[in-house]
Write a structure and sequence with these properties.
The protein is of the alpha/beta class. Helices cover 39% and strands 23% of the residues.
Length: 450
């Protein structure tokens, strides 16, 4: 007979460590989490939670750290099919000589479907429960995220010139608004405007994006100040930086998600802070393309929310957000010549609650708190590389923990159990990827270096 004095719940998770992130970013040892449906009911010392709650199922994780699901705040999921295709090229050459020609020949709804499934399989296994995506055929990405049970912000791409998905920026906005109508009340998928960059969208169309975004209360996701050449070109073309240009258009606000931001003056950091703009740092991709380094410590000191993104696997090769958190921390220490810069506690917050805030989801996900969605992951720290475990946060950030994720829940639903995907068929995902590898190898004009 169930104990009628206890509060019923669906699941109790008992773990060696629980990291709430908020309201206090303090690890809880030998702690438990009570979940009912999609929501966290309570968390705290195991003895207290077990005394208060009775569950239909109990999951014992005696060698695990449980923490909020990771939020990958910027990426291009389908580009996983271009992983490792071309290496050691700068951004403009990489785009113009390889990526854009290939996209014009190969990107179809089928390509996006298979590439998104590949990315989802990788992201789930690495503990990512929410991702932001900007790519062609966003309706396909949205559908695949929904089927996989993963939370997503789908920033539909807006580019002035014709491409695989739209004939113009006006056409893209029209299609994107229809996509928003489809997912208006969805619990997992939200739609955002995705103007590719200020240099690839006209002023008139940026003004239209701003008008619709304010009218519909939607986010705007944009590549901004990705490298020094972009900023130099802006000064030649318009007499100021693109950030100042967007400020003059009235686009700087908490709904704006500025991706990369590797080139910023002190005055521009102040602009971002005063407007409450979200900044998304993609350290691996930026280093790989020699694009520059986002000034994270200055941004954080100014009060700017900074999130983390993997970017696409074509310019990163990996979709490991804990790896991004580690690199973000190490970069800040080196750039500042200060070992105390960007400590692991802040790096982990950037990968969780910082990402949630950037996507406008800070009240729903990003931390383990009663009333929030049960988006959480477990990392198995029983392996030798995690021992001895004095500081669970340090081990997560600095010990390749992305490969040790064992369980993942999104809104209380398990999408990874004991290291096995539950909503995706890994064999079919890999088979499809190998099919595209053969197709790409047969595609003419890849211009890959010998």
């Amino acid at each position: 007979m169930p104990d009628s004095s206890k509060i019923p719940c669906d699941t109790l998770i008992n773990a060696a460590w629980v990291l709430p992130i908020a309201p206090k970013n303090v690890p809880l040892e030998e702690a438990s989490i009570a979940i009912e449906g999609p929501v966290i009911l309570a968390l705290g010392p195991r003895a207290e939670i077990e005394a208060a709650y009775v569950a239909q199922s109990t999951i014992e994780l005696p060698d695990h750290i449980v923490l909020p699901g990771l939020v990958n705040a910027h990426g291009h999921a389908a580009m996983s099919l271009f992983r490792g295709l071309t290496e050691d090229l700068p951004l403009q050459t990489w785009l113009s000589d390889v990526i854009w020609p290939l996209e014009s020949r190969l990107v179809t709804p089928e390509f996006v479907r298979d590439g998104t499934r590949l990315a989802l399989a990788e992201m789930i296994a690495a503990g990512i429960t929410c991702f932001s995506d900007m790519y062609f055929f966003p309706e396909v990405t949205a559908e695949e995220a929904r089927l996989a049970g993963v939370r997503a912000q789908i920033a539909f791409p807006i580019i002035e010139f014709g491409n695989a998905w739209s004939t113009s920026a006006e056409d893209a906005i029209h299609k994107g608004l229809a996509l928003h109508d489809t997912y208006r009340n969805d619990n997992l998928v939200q739609v955002a405007f995705g103007p590719h960059s200020p240099y690839s969208v006209s002023e008139a169309d940026l003004n239209n994006v701003l008008m619709y975004a304010e009218e519909l209360d939607l986010n705007i996701h944009i590549h901004l100040h990705e490298n020094a050449q972009e900023v130099a070109d802006a000064h030649k073309r318009i007499g100021s930086s693109w950030l100042v240009y967007l400020s003059e258009l009235g686009m700087l606000s908490p709904r704006l998600q500025a991706v990369h931001a590797t080139q910023l003056t002190t005055a521009e950091i102040t602009l971002l802070a005063e407007a409450g703009v979200q900044v998304i740092h993609c350290p691996h991709s930026n280093l790989k393309l020699a694009s520059g380094i986002c000034p994270t410590t200055q941004l954080l000191a100014a009060g700017v929310n900074v999130a983390l993104g993997t970017d696409g696997a074509a310019s990163n090769n990996s979709l490991d957000l804990l790896g991004e958190a580690r690199l973000a921390s190490l970069l800040a220490k080196q750039v500042d010549a200060d070992a105390a810069s960007l400590p692991e506690t802040i790096a982990l917050e950037m990968a969780t609650l910082g990402g949630a805030r950037a996507l406008g989801l800070g009240d729903t996900i990003g931390s383990l708190e009663p009333g929030k969605s049960a988006d959480l992951i477990a990392v198995d720290v029983s392996a030798p590389r995690f021992q001895p475990l004095y500081d669970p946060i340090a081990q997560l950030i600095h010990t390749a923990a992305g490969s040790a994720v064992s369980h993942v829940w999104v809104a209380g639903n398990a999408v990874l159990m004991d290291g096995k995907l539950t909503t995706l068929d890994e064999t079919s995902v890999v088979t499809a990827a190998k099919h595209w590898q053969a197709t790409v190898n047969l595609s003419p004009g890849m211009n890959r270096p010998a």
